[in-house]
Amino acid sequence: MDSGVLMLASRILERYPLCDRCLGRFFAGLGMGLSNFERGRSVKVLMAMELHGGASKDPQALRDKIYLYSLNAGEPFSSLYRHIYGLDPPKPSPCYVCGGKVESIIADWVKRVGESLRAMGFRRFILGVRPPEGSSEAEEEIAREFSLQHWESIKNDLKREIGKGVSRSYGFEPDFSDPEIMLILDISRGSIEAVIPSLIVSSRVVKLVRGVSFKKRPGKRSLEDIVERVAEDLGEGVRISIPVRDTSRYRILGDGFYSILEIRSPKPGRRSLEAISSAINRKQDIYIIDIIGKGRRKDIEDLANRVKRITYRIYIYSSKKLGDIEMEKLKSQSPITLEQRTPKRIVERGGAERIYKGDLKIEAIQRISEKTFEIIASTSSKIYIEETITGDEGRTSPSLSSILSTDLKPLEIDVIRIEL
Ligand SMILES: [Zn+2]
To answer: Per residue in 5-52, pLDDT tens?
Structure first.
């Protein structure tokens, strides 16, 4: 045999019994548009043709060889042996890699996967395969022994062939970038494990009301709960991650928060951004969620580090009457450099004590009545805004209260801008 592939295949088959597909897989990188079954079959056919040619000149010289190939490779060598020597060929040995089971494995698992997907209602899938026990070791042994360059693993072959079969017979599509479900097939155990990837989108969230937090909290209202309820046809388990502290007392206005919205167990067929957007925005009096695009969980961690300043609109009540002089005083002291110990209300709930340094920049101030006024002010994302107003019994110093020597109380706080 003078061809490289045929020479190599002959040497392999002299040592190891291999079925068509497992032989073809050792040459998977050669020849396009072929299955490994076709590769292996073609190699065996060509080898048999060469041997037939040689044996018609000198049958006895090739007898042992044709016998050995009949034993290790079955057809078409078995028929050739019977034809030339008029004797029964030996019973072929089981394939060294798959035990002769690979074709039935593919056929069986196409059916199992197809039926499972149909039963669950999912259409776009990816497969993971744990190949039959011992098969990967066997093929690696052969590839190493013959220094093979173009071989493919049985794991890949099974994954692709079962996927193709499911697509052909059931019309479901393998989808590597956005699957609805991942099925992990354990061939030896005969089990299928289904993993439904969560659906993650990046979004901007405007929160129009107070008294609702983003994250779920026992006994409290949260956007996560509300979104989960209004969008129950999308799936279960809604998580909304935001890059700043989750405070139910504030409205989030302006452009809203950049956030990552995750549906942990999405239902089949509901992954388009339009479907998600119209489902979650049914409750427009509480929030508006603009879907920006597909997201990754990692995005939210990155973003938290990028938030620099937050601008608030704060409506403030004073226990003492205030006039224009006091308004001027606050304005003239801006930006107010301050030091803040973790607020008492946080420490009382078990929060760790820290000291934060920052500044409060008053961008606008307006007196509303003798005891109320409104400011637009920005500060770093670490600073707790309420305590810059109240002073928190001296734990934040100075504060607007200490500067004006009065007790100030924020009545309403809105976030109106986040600088990244
Ligand atoms: Zn095999």
So the answer is: 889 999 999 999 999 999 999 999 888 889 999 999 999 999 999 999
- Full-model pTM: 0.70
Ligand 1 centroid to residue 126 C-alpha, Å: 24
Q: 185 forms bridges with which residues in the sheet?
A: 129, 192
Question: At residue 272, what is the residue type?
Answer: S
DSSP 303-316: HHTT--EEEEEEEE
Confidence of residue 314 (pLDDT cuts 50, 70, 90): very high
Distance 17 CA to ligand 1 centre (A): 8
- The owner of tokens 């190891």 is 16
Q: Considering only CA atoms, which of 331, 329, 321, 340 is closest in space to residue 386?
A: 340
- Measured at the alpha carbon of residue 226, what is the angle toward residues 197 and 343, in degrees to the nearest 5? 100
The pLDDT value given to residue 305: 78
Output the pLDDT for position 93.
96
Query: From the CA of 21, how far away is ligand 1's center (Å)?
Result: 6
**Domains located in the chain, CATH noted:** 4-85 (no CATH), 102-195 (3.30.2300.10), 199-304 (3.30.70.2510), 309-419 (3.30.70.3190)
The token duo for 407 is 């007790």
Distance CA 153, CA 22 (A): 9
Residue 92 Cα to ligand 1 midpoint, Å, equals 12
**Which residues are within 8 A (CB) of 181 and not within 5 positions of it... i.e. 6 or more apart?**
117, 120, 122, 124, 125, 126, 194, 195, 196, 197, 268
